[in-house]
Design a protein that fits this description.
231 residues; alpha/beta; 9 helices
C-alpha cells in the first residue's frame, strides 16, 4: 500500500512539474513573440494626422467648438437659425462672448451656392436655383440675390451677415463648386475653369474653400468640433 501511494505521488509530481515547465515555456513564447510585441504597440492612444491645409480649424478663437453640416437650401436655413440660438444660449446661460465660440457651417451639395455672394447670384441665379432646387417663395422664380445673406424680406435674410460678424466661418465644398461651375459654363457658353475662378473670388465673408464638404466635417471633428446636421 505504501509503495503504491509513493508511486502515485511521484507520478503526480512529475505530471505537475511537466505542466508547469510547459506553461512557462508557452508563456515565454507568447510574451516574446512578434505578435505579442505588435499587440503592445496598439495600446498607444490613436491620434489623427495633421495637415497644413487644415490649420485654419485651430486658428478660430473659442473655448467651445461647434460645426453645423448642411447639404440642402433648407438645411442651410436651419443652420443659420441653430447657430444664432447657439450664440444666444451661451451668452444668456453662461455669460460667454462671441469670441468664446468657434462655429463653422459647412456648405456642400445643394447648399453650396449659398456660400456665394450676391454678384454671383445676380449673374447666374437661374443655374444656381436649378442646382440647389430653390426658388423664391414669393415669385416662384430663381432668386437674384443670396436670400440668406443681406437683410431682406425672407425670414432668414440678414442672419448670415449677422453670424459672419459674430465670427462664424463657412467651409465651402470645392467639388460641388466645380460641378456648379460646369453647369453654368454649359448654359452660358463659358469655360468651367474661368467660372470656377470667378465664383471662388466671390464667396461670402469668412468662407474657406475645402476639397470636399464631407471632408471638412471629418477634419473639423478631428480638430475637436462637435457636430450636428442642421435639419
Amino acid at each position: 500500500m505504501t509503495g503504491k501511494w509513493l508511486q502515485s505521488t511521484m507520478a503526480r509530481r512529475m505530471f505537475l512539474s511537466r505542466i508547469g515547465v510547459g506553461a512557462g515555456v508557452v508563456g515565454a513564447g507568447v510574451i516574446g513573440s512578434p505578435a505579442a510585441d505588435a499587440q503592445g504597440t496598439t495600446d498607444a492612444p490613436w491620434r489623427p494626422a495633421r495637415h497644413a491645409q487644415d490649420d485654419w480649424y485651430d486658428k478660430i478663437p473659442g473655448v467651445h467648438r461647434f460645426l453645423l453640416d448642411t447639404s440642402t437650401a433648407e438645411s442651410m436655413g436651419w443652420s443659420l437659425q441653430f447657430a444664432t440660438n447657439y450664440f444666444t444660449a451661451n451668452q444668456e446661460a453662461y455669460g460667454l462672448k462671441e469670441s468664446d465660440l468657434a462655429v463653422i457651417i459647412v456648405a456642400r451639395h445643394k447648399s453650396t451656392s449659398f456660400a456665394y455672394n450676391d454678384a454671383i447670384w445676380a449673374k447666374y441665379g437661374k443655374q444656381l436655383s436649378e442646382q440647389s432646387e430653390y426658388t423664391d417663395p414669393k415669385t416662384k422664380e430663381a432668386p437674384k440675390i443670396n436670400v440668406y445673406g443681406p437683410a431682406g424680406e425672407t425670414a432668414q435674410a440678414g442672419r448670415m451677415d449677422a453670424l459672419i460678424k459674430k465670427g462664424v466661418q463657412f467651409a465651402v465644398c470645392s467639388m460641388s463648386t466645380r460641378g456648379i461651375s460646369g453647369r453654368i459654363a454649359k448654359a452660358n457658353g463659358l469655360e468651367t475653369d474661368s467660372v470656377f475662378k470667378e465664383i471662388t473670388a466671390n464667396l461670402i465673408g469668412n468662407a474657406h474653400m475645402v476639397p470636399a464638404g464631407v471632408l471638412a466635417v471629418n477634419r473639423a471633428q478631428e480638430h475637436g468640433y462637435s457636430f450636428i446636421y442642421a435639419t
